[in-house]
Structure formats: structure tokens, C-alpha cells
Amino acid sequence: MDIESKLATIDSKYRFRNVQTRQLFHYLNLADTNNIVAYGPRATCKTGVVRSLVFEQLETFHVWINVLHHVNVKSIYESILLQIQKHLDIEENDPSITCANSIIFVEKLVHYLQKFKSSNNDQTRLYMNKFIVVLDNVDSLFRDNCNVEFIYLMNYLEQLTKNIVPISVIYISGHSIEWLMRQCDFKPSSLQVVFNEYTYDEMLKLLSSYADIKYQNYTPEFFNNYVNIILKTFHSFTRNFAELRNISLSNFQHYIKPITVEELTENDQGKLYMRFQPRLQDLIENFIADHKCHRVNISSFKMSPSMNYLLVSSYLATYNPIRSDKKHFVRNQGRVRKIRRKHTLKMRNDDEDSTKQLKPFTFERVFNIYQALLHLNENNRPIRQQLMSSGIVFEQFHELIKQNLIHPIKSSNTSSISSHSKYLISDIVTHKHIDDISFSIGLDFQAFVQVD
């Protein structure tokens, strides 16, 4: 099978991803070895396209690491070496592989590759064209700063083994290469493939295609009309294709129930919609409730220190009057926290929170409070300087918006944060949440709360 036929096979499996498939194929076949970042939101077929291209269509040597399945970097090193052993059918005296650090990993990797290359057989000539390491869900590596060394090694791995075999590392991520650069504090020499969200029309065509698989008794036009109802209802709530697919497929039987009991026919589109409307309303309420419960469990959502400070700053900007900023962050900057603690007013409880109207705040005010809290609370100067980086602040504030913990006011541009953009903190963020977050970063939050 020629290359174009192989790519067409992937196109038929993952529709509307043909541009990304060919871009990936082109990058992997460049003369100069390059690392690649394949990034985009959830359910955009990043993993599927990369897996199909690397596993099924390219005749090359590869290992696949799902970072979420490993508790630490040591485990990732060992998994890479074990996969190489299995791939190349290498027999070692010690079947158990232990890698205490990156130096031992590189030594064993070079040893394996040299040993296999020296065998000089047909499989060697096939595999030595390129070695591909795929790191899926790579974002989770950046939850701990100690993993930066691993990313650095992966970025420059090719330079250590280029005399044996060229190596490309594919990072499958929910974030762009610019985000990765800010996390690891060096510039990864990587190309980028963007997996955009599906458009409304693309989702409509993808979801309608399931009629041929599951509901052959109904015409494509009939199923397409049903999918259009689902999309129009839920597209404003979620763009996640997997969620929309589950909603549409799991509720079709409810939509056609009047037909199955012979009360209506396929031609009664208006009446079918009226019968289905109460079900739609229940689906919307359940969807919102499920996602709200997911978001309200803030403690289970892994937040970086900068996100913690930003959420606390947003809470203070919501409930504190502007005049209190000067009182807390200017006049008292030179005082120690123990002195300020004496002036702490009583804690506001969650019931009082719910009765107060949320006040909008500007990003400029949140940023000023954020910097003041860092200056007063973070004693480690390098950490304080890193957290004050505007690039990190913008990225983490966007993440809070993405998690629906902060809502931009409609007039604000969500894709670009300006100093005067206005926002609201979510009503699911309670005083107790903020108090728990403050405790985790060692912040005397109660000292900054202004009670009316």
C-alpha cells in the first residue's frame, strides 16, 4: 500500500483531521529530526491520529507512554526501556530494569540501540530509519517542577543518540508549545500540529454518520434532524465531541418512542420535538448539575501556586471594597503577619456569601492584589519572581476561566486579557474553598478579608 493510501485510511477513520495527519507525516519525514507538539482540546482525536500514524502506517521504531499511568519519571524511564526490549527482542541477563536517574536511563538506551544496530539484519535497516517516542497526556508532567529535567532530556535526546538512530519525541498535549515553554523555562525545539475543536457543521456530519451504524431503520435525514436538535441545545454548553456524541446516541430512543408505539410517524417532526422537549429540559438540568458538581470539587482539581493566588485575589476583589486594597496591601506592607492577624475580623460563613451579590472586578485589580499577596507571603525570591511573570499569570487566569471558576463578563474578550477586562468569580467558590486554598500555600487569608 502506498503512502497516500495509508493516509487515506486514517482520513476515513478520523474525519476532518486530514490536515493534521499530513502535517504530522510531513514533520516525521523531514531530513532534520524534530520533536513535535500535537495539541488541542479534549476529544479532538489527537491520540487517535498519532496512534494510527505511528502504530499502523509508519514502518518505524516507536514506544508509547501514557504519562497518566506512571507515578513518577523513574517509572517512565523504565517503561521506555522495557518497550525497547520487547520491540527489539533484546535478551538481558537482568530482566528487571531500574533507572535511578536520567544518566542511567541514557546509558542503557544507548547500549540497547548500539547492540541492536550491530546485529545488521533486515529488521535493523527498517527500524534504524527513526525512533519515535510518544508522550501522551504530557500536561500532567508539569504539575511537579521536578519533572522539568525529564522534559529537558526528552527535548535533547536526539543529540545524545543521533550517531546511532535519529529520535523524534511527540508530545500530545492540551496546551500549545508556548505554554510548554513557560512551564519548563527553556525553549523546546519542537514543531507544532494544532487539533482545533470541531466546528458546528463538522460535529453535525460526524454525529449524523452514526445513523448508518446504529439506526439503519431510519433515514439519514431523520437522524440528521434529531442530531441538529441536540447540537442546537447543547453546543453552547460544551464543545466536547465525546460528550455530545454520548448525549445524542443515548437519547435517540426517547426521541423515537412515539414512533415505536405508533402514535406518530417520521414525518411528524414538529410533534416529535414537542414530545421530546421535556426530556431535553431534564437533560440540560442534569448536564449543568453534573458539571457544577465537578467544578465545585475544587480540592480535586490540581491547581498550581499561581492559580491558587489568583483565585484568592479574585475572591478578595469580589467581596472587598476597592478602598480596602490600600489598607491591606500598601499601609501594612512592612508589618509582619502576626501583627496583622490581630486586626483580623470574624470569618464570613458560606451562608453569608450566598446572600451577597457578586461584584465584578477588573483583571488589573486582581493582578495588583496577586502581586501584593506574593510579595507579603512568598519568602523565596526566585519562586516569587517566577510567579510574578506576566506570561504565567495570563495562562493561569485563562485556565481558571476554562474551569468555570471565573466568568468573563460578556463585553470582555475571553481570548485576550486586557488590564481593564471585567470578570465575575463563580458562585460555587465559597469562603471555605478559599480558606482551604490559602492554608495550602501558607497564606493568612483571614487577615485580608474586609467584613461589612
Binned, the helix content reads 40-55%
CATH-level-4 superfamily name of the largest domain: P-loop containing nucleotide triphosphate hydrolases
Principal-axis shape: flat
**Largest sheet, strands/sense/barrel:** 5 strands, parallel
Extended strand count:
8
Examine the coordinates and then state which fold CATH places here, giving the name of the CATH topology of the largest domain: Rossmann fold
Low-confidence stretches: 331-355
Secondary-structure class = alpha/beta
Please give the radius of gyration in angstroms: 27 Å
Instruction: Give the class-level CATH name of the largest domain.
Output: Alpha Beta
Annotated CATH architecture of the largest domain: 3-Layer(aba) Sandwich
Domain Origin recognition complex subunit 5 C-terminal: 306-448
Organism: Blomia tropicalis (Mite)
GO molecular function, one term: DNA replication origin binding
Keywords: DNA replication, Nucleus
Provide structural commentary.
By secondary structure, the chain is α/β, with parallel strands linked by helices. The chain has three domains: 192 residues, Rossmann fold, CATH 3.40.50.300; 97 residues, no CATH class; 149 residues, no CATH class. 54% of the residues lie in helices and 8% in strands. It contains 24 helices and eight strands. The strands form two sheets. The protein has a five-stranded parallel beta sheet with strand order 2-3-4-1-5. Helix 4 runs parallel beside helix 5. About 6% of the residues have low confidence. InterPro entries: ORC5, ORC5_C, ORC5_lid, P-loop_NTPase. It is found in: Nucleus.
